[in-house]
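Team,

Forwarding the record for the chain on the shared tracking sheet. I've put the sequence and predicted structure together so nobody has to dig through attachments.
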Amino acid sequence: MTKRVVLTLVGAVLALGGLAVFLVLQGLDAADKWSSVLSLFFTVAGFALTLVGLLNRGPAQSADHAVTGGSLHQITHVKGDVVITSGGGGTGSPPTAAPAEGQGGGTQSAHGVRTAGDLHQIDGVGGSVHIEPPTSSTP
């Protein structure tokens, strides 16, 4: 474990121990009232952190440990059309910094996947997506 993790764990144990000692010293009735008030604040803090996490999370695309026999494309939040050509090149509208309204926000994963061909992860495209088949090099 890193020093930061150890210090965080020690701090959490000390804080919980201090809270337990405080509540024991207050007596049963007062400790019950303190617990009710503290649970309200922890509930509000947890709700606020949940909202912040939901609003600030970006779309996640992962291709960890993916092995492809072709090309890998990860595309998200494009307002225009996307054309993926054979040979790994892509053309179309460039991705924008801000997502289009109501698009994307999901997660995609290819963890541990091995493919013999191309791997495409596409999310939040405002136009059409066209994946061109490979062209034959034989006459």
